[in-house]
Design a protein that fits this description.
The complex is a heterodimer of chains A (276) and B (361).
Chain A (H helix, E strand, L loop, with lengths): L2 H30 L3 H4 L14 H9 L2 H32 L5 H13 L6 H11 L5 H25 L3 H9 L4 H12 L1 H17 L2 H6 L8 H9 L7 H27 L10
Helix pairs in contact in A: 1-13, 3-13, 4-7, 4-10, 4-12, 5-7, 7-10, 8-9, 10-13, 12-13
Chain B lengths: L3 E10 L2 E11 L4 E5 L6 H9 L6 E6 L2 E2 L10 E4 L11 H11 L4 H14 L15 H13 L5 E5 L7 H18 L2 E6 L2 H7 L2 E6 L2 E6 L1 H6 L4 H6 L6 E8 L2 E4 L2 E6 L4 E7 L5 E3 L3 E10 L3 E8 L2 E8 L9 E5 L6 E3 L6 E2 L3 E2 L3 H4 L4
The chains are: A mainly alpha (276), B alpha+beta (361).
Chain lengths: 276, 361
């Protein structure tokens, strides 16, 4: 096979993979812009013939979509904040302090992450009821924190362990306190790790469905995932156009965040100032 | 400026004793080198001086006051790490300014101090760069700058030159000596490189197995090594050792008299430095088993009935491996050690001449 043919082959493969991933997304956007008639027309159209934003308008003005959206923002932001703060401090301890049981804790954390979250659903539900937190935003924040925190701890611990301890020691000698050295020197080094952790947590909290369905059964605290479903999907009918428009709007925040943070994720990697 | 005193300093990691009771007093303004092979405890010792490790027992005193419980930031010290440990996300200027910033020095003063340090270390053109954009030698100078800027009372340097190439290393060696002379602060320098120790220090502490083997000026340590470990560690090529015997006032090697000696009878280890071995027409017969041309001279390995010694010969030496030569050494230049403890033994040595040959007991 000539190199040229091989290159063409690889390109074809790559593009078909992209199509496979992006196809449903494009279909979703296209459908959300079609009129109700066009969605169900017997000769399906690839692109909307007469693009319309009416479904978006309906969602934003006539439904509880904005409220669900606000709930989701609160839940995802709160979870991300709690997870990042706890994980950064916990990982610092696991990476830098010597104490009995440190490795055991680290392994236990990893074990927690390996546990399928479905097995936690009943205990967590009962726990929330006992705590009087059922049907609250807090219950979801706590539940998501419990899934995201182990992974976040593990990831950040690895990031911190890779930073040479000498630069913190240099900061200590240069007059920084322990926490000063942590903030001035270590934190900037693990920023890419913190951003990945935040992204991971935010996406998890934003997209989560099952726990939201089980733990929250009141309309005023429902997040987007379950809210949109209960609103638009019933036993008799699925409001496809609205569902697609809702799906597009649900994806927008993630797309914006990813676009912003992608650069940060890559930056900082390979920035070594320590030789030897 | 501060003198340093160590009292029975001990450090244990788990069940391993890394530093085993070191007593040492270093005058203020000294350039002390902690010299020893890897793993001898010298870096741990330095880290205890810095406050990065707490001693398991014993005391560290700066200027007569115990600093054991004082955190690193308040010991008024600066340290240059082997890895330089520059802050990767800060520019050169921010790196150098950091110790001042942490001590609340106002901005203007800080900038002036950074500019001064950069001037001294020829870093002025690099102040806006980040560490990863610098060469090893430049990074090293930034690390020095960060140490210098605050003018601490004690400088700690942990093998700061080991990552530099040979040319830069000898250049920085001279720079450091000049710097020490200029600022006159106490410096503690850790290295396993005896050349650095000999050329830079006012005082050398040879450490092995967590114990202080010898403390003195470079010349003392070289000329009168306190034990076999120090003798073999210092000097290139290494000192050759042979098993000797003192019998009726004579030092015997392989049963043959080598010198007259004022010491009681018994076994003794004889140490011979390469520069003391002279190739001569008469003397101990030996075979040239190896030759190493190192440029300005040739090192000969001589094997004979006295065991193996190394000798220095001119670069244009015409001998070939396998040749038989004779060598001599002046008795006063021999080093004697206790064969069991390895400790130095001092004894008057004098040549055996035809005049005293017959009168010797």
């Amino acid at each position: 096979m000539s190199p040229r043919l091989a290159r063409t082959g690889w390109s074809l493969l790559a593009w078909s993979l992209i199509l496979l991933v992006a196809g449903p997304l494009l279909w979703m956007v296209a459908t959300s812009l079609k009129s109700e008639d066009e969605v169900f027309s017997l000769e399906p159209t690839l692109l909307p013939v007469e693009p319309t934003l009416e479904h978006y308008a309906v969602l934003l003005t006539e439904t509880a979509f904005p409220a669900y959206f606000a709930n989701s923002v609160v839940i995802a932001t709160a979870t991300t904040t709690v997870v990042v703060v706890l994980a950064v401090l916990g990982a610092f301890s696991l990476a830098r302090f010597r104490y009995r049981g440190r490795e055991a804790i680290a392994s236990a954390v990893l074990l927690c992450y390996m546990l399928p979250s479905v097995v936690l659903i009943i205990p967590l539900y009962l726990l929330m009821v006992r705590l009087g937190l059922a049907n609250t935003i807090a219950s979801l924040v706590i539940a998501y924190t419990s899934f995201a925190l182990p992974y976040a701890l593990w990831l950040l611990r690895t990031f911190m362990a890779a930073v040479p301890v000498e630069i913190e020691q240099a900061a200590l000698i240069d007059g920084a306190s322990r926490m000063g050295a942590f903030f001035d020197v270590l934190l900037p080094q693990v920023l890419p790790g913190i951003i990945s952790t935040a992204l991971f947590t935010f996406i998890l909290a934003w997209n989560e469905f099952l726990f939201a369905l089980v733990l929250v059964n009141a309309d005023d605290v429902r997040p987007l995932t379950t809210g949109v479903m209960t609103m638009l999907v019933s036993g008799f009918n699925i409001e496809w156009s609205l569902l697609m428009a809702a799906s597009v709007m649900m994806s927008v925040p993630l797309i914006i965040i990813l676009a912003f943070l992608q650069g940060h994720l890559v930056r900082g990697f390979g920035a070594g100032a320590v030789k030897g | 400026m501060a003198g340093i005193e160590l009292r029975a300093l001990h450090k244990r990691f788990g069940t391993t004793d890394v530093v085993r009771g070191i007593d040492l007093t270093v005058p203020s303004g000294a350039f002390l080198t902690l010299l020893g092979p890897s793993g001898c405890g010298k870096s741990t010792l330095l880290r205890m001086l810095a406050g990065l490790e707490a001693p398991s027992a014993g005391q560290i005193l700066f200027d007569g006051s115990v600093v054991n419980d004082i955190p690193p930031g308040r010991r008024d010290i600066a340290m240059v790490f082997q890895s330089y440990a520059l802050y990767p996300h800060m520019t050169v200027a921010q790196n150098i300014a950091y110790p001042l910033r942490k001590r609340g020095v106002p901005r203007g003063e800080r900038d002036a101090a950074v500019a001064r340090a950069a001037e001294v270390l020829q870093l002025t053109a690099l102040l806006d760069r980040r560490p990863r954009e610098l060469s090893g030698g430049q990074q090293q100078r930034v690390a020095l700058g960060r140490a210098l800027v605050r003018e601490p009372r004690i400088f700690l340097l942990d093998e700061p030159l080991s990552n530099l190439d040979a040319t830069l290393r000898s250049h920085m060696r001279r720079e450091l000596v000049a710097l020490h002379r200029r600022i006159g602060r106490t410096m503690v320098y850790v290295t396993h490189d005896q050349l650095e120790a000999m050329t830079m220090s006012t005082h050398v502490a040879v450490i092995d197995g967590g114990r202080l083997q010898q403390f003195g000026t470079p010349a003392e340590v070289y000329r009168r090594p306190a034990n076999r470990m120090v003798a073999s560690f210092i000097g290139t090529p290494g000192m050759a050792f042979a098993d000797g015997m003192v019998a009726t006032g004579r030092l015997l090697l392989a049963g043959r008299p080598l010198a007259l000696i004022g010491a009681p009878d018994g076994p003794v280890t004889v140490g011979i430095r390469a520069e003391d071995v002279e190739i001569a027409d008469t003397g101990v017969a030996a075979c040239v088993t190896d030759m190493e041309a190192v440029g300005h001279e040739t090192l000969l390995t001589l094997s004979g009935e006295f065991g193996t010694v190394t000798a220095r010969a001119p670069a244009d030496c015409r001998l070939a491996p396998g040749a038989t030569v004779h060598w001599q050494v002046r008795p006063a230049q021999l080093h004697l050690f206790n064969p069991e403890t390895g400790d130095r033994r001092n004894a008057a040595l004098s040549p055996i001449t035809s005049s005293n040959e017959t009168t010797a007991p």
